[in-house]
Specification:
Distance between the termini: 43 Å
CATH superfamily: P-loop containing nucleotide triphosphate hydrolases
Largest sheet: 7 strands, parallel
Bound molecules: magnesium ion, zinc ion
Structural class: alpha/beta
Oligomer: single chain
Number of strands: 7
Helix content: 25-40%
Order of helices and strands: HEHEHEHEEHHEHEH
Number of domains: 1
CATH class: Alpha Beta
CATH architecture: 3-Layer(aba) Sandwich
Strand order of the largest sheet: 3-2-4-1-5-6-7
Number of helices: 8
Strand content: 15-25%
CATH topology: Rossmann fold
Length: about 220
């Protein structure tokens, strides 16, 4: 019984996600669903992305958060349009939430939208929200076991950013092993080790995004 209910929810969600995708595709807007654990550095990656690209491409951010607007406040400082979704305790974004948020953006003057999902390695990967691609941020402080323990999110993500590589010497994280595990789960995945603090490796992430946005 519970499985059937879940299927109905996902069926409705997928319909709304398809509508969002069509709406954005008609305007040639690339949409990225950015996922990862709390504290992995999703908002920091957005800050780096905006600083580097806001004069080059027109972007907007949708921020999913359980209760606060802290991340949206950080984004707003850059001058990029940001819409806050508070899930009131909900542990992932769904397509109807994103559809509602999109009504507040001027879609005629955007090249891409990044949607920062709620920090969680599990259910955000199960709900399509109208995105073209999913990306996951995994930080070295989370440990090497995460890809194999939470394979779905890595299987769904076209790119996995391994963040905080400047902290590798202080952890037992093995970037090569994590990369191998992610590739085992998703052979076509791009794995991009970088540091949002130092900026090392950021250029490869920006290049991946540029290619997607301009396609
Ligand atoms: Mg955040
Ligand atoms: Zn959830």
């Amino acid at each position: 019984m519970e499985i059937k209910v879940m299927k109905d929810i996902l069926g409705q969600n997928d319909k709304t996600a398809a509508n969002i995708h069509a709406l954005l595709a008609a305007r040639k807007i690339f949409a990225l669903n950015l996922m990862g654990s709390p504290g992995a550095g999703k908002t920091s990656l957005l800050e780096r992305t905006m600083a580097a690209m806001k004069d080059e491409l027109r972007m907007a951010v949708i921020e999913g958060d359980l209760f606060t607007s802290r991340d949206a406040d950080r984004i707003a400082k850059s001058g990029v349009p940001v819409i806050q979704i508070n899930t009131a305790g909900g542990c992932h974004l769904d397509a109807p939430m994103v559809e509602k948020a999109l009504r507040e953006l001027d879609l005629d003057c955007l090249d891409f939208i990044i949607i920062e999902n709620v920090g969680n390695l599990v259910c955000p990967a199960e709900f399509a929200i109208g995105e073209d691609e999913k990306a996951t941020v995994l930080s070295v402080t989370e440990g090497n076991d995460k890809p194999m323990k939470y394979p779905l999110i890595f299987k769904e993500s076209a790119v996995t950013v391994i963040n905080k590589i400047d902290l590798v010497p202080y952890t037992d994280f093995d970037v090569a092993q994590a990369t191998e595990d992610i590739k085992t789960i998703h052979p076509a995945a791009k794995v991009l080790p970088l540091s949002c603090s130092t900026g090392e490796g950021i250029e490869a992430w920006l290049d991946w995004l540029r290619e997607k946005v301009k396609r």
